[in-house]
Amino acid sequence: MAGDRVSVKRALVSVSDKAGLVPFVRRLAAAGVEVLSTGGTASALREAGVAVTAVESYTGHPEIMDGRVKTLHPRVHGAILAVRDNEQHMRQAREHGIVPIDMVVVNLYPFEKTVAKPDVTLAEAIENIDIGGPAMVRSAAKNHRYVAIVVDPGDYAAVASEVEAGGLTQATRERLAVKAYRHTAKYDTAIAAYLAKAYHAGR
């Protein structure tokens, strides 16, 4: 951390909406950022020639249960939530092989788009309830003093410019954290509304 800027050495990137993803991550990689990624996001980046480290290589644990469990791991959430100037946190991180993650780039399974389909089933809707994504978004937003959370592709250009300039400012991290919590609140509201209708219609 230089002044109020947080330099980005490592980013975790896992997105459903891949708009603008490749040029953004190329800029991060060119700025020296190590990129961790999952599933389809990692595949898309590799196909575009961007070097990524699979999250399962970092955690030492494969994705399981059809991808339901892939980032719910202490080496992911510890890397996001560690308070960098808390020596006990950092000692425990070292003991458990946890390397800090300075930026999380996540947007969520397209629940609203899925349930808007006229023939969607309840089972399909439930499979599109993201679990690991909101957990990472909330973890990074909680720890925005040290970690940047990016949920909107519309922020990619400005974020990349700040990374290239030496790091994300406190004002930017605060703005992104507020946007992140609005993102998960809207997501949960949509899920609650859909399930309320599905389970209580006609009662």
Describe the protein's architecture and organization.
The chain is of the alpha/beta class and 203 residues long. The chain has helices at 21-30, 39-47, 55-59, 74-81, 87-95, 111-115, 122-127, 132-142, 156-164, 170-200, and strands spanning 10-15, 34-37, 53-54, 103-107, 148-150. The chain has one domain (10-200): Methylglyoxal synthase-like domain (Rossmann fold), CATH 3.40.50.1380. It is built from ten helices and five strands; from the N terminus they run βαβαβαααβαααβαα. The chain has a five-stranded parallel beta sheet with strand order 3-2-1-4-5, with helices on both faces. Helix 1 links the parallel strand 1 (10-15) and strand 2. Helix 1 packs parallel to helix 9 (156-164) and helix 8 (132-142) packs antiparallel against helix 10 (170-200). The longest helix is centred in the last third of the chain and has 31 residues, at 170-200.
Q: What's the CATH superfamily, by name?
A: Methylglyoxal synthase-like domain
Structural class of the helices, strands and pairings? alpha/beta
- Encode the helix/strand succession as letters: EHEHEHHHEHHHEHH
Number of domains: 1
Dominant shape: globular
Q: How many alpha or pi helices?
A: 10
Oligomer: single chain
Short summary:
The protein has helices spanning about 20-30, 40-45, 55-60, 75-80, 85-95, 110-115, 120-125, 130-140, 155-165, 170-200, and strands at about 10-15, 35, 55, 105, 150. It has about 200 residues and is an alpha/beta fold.
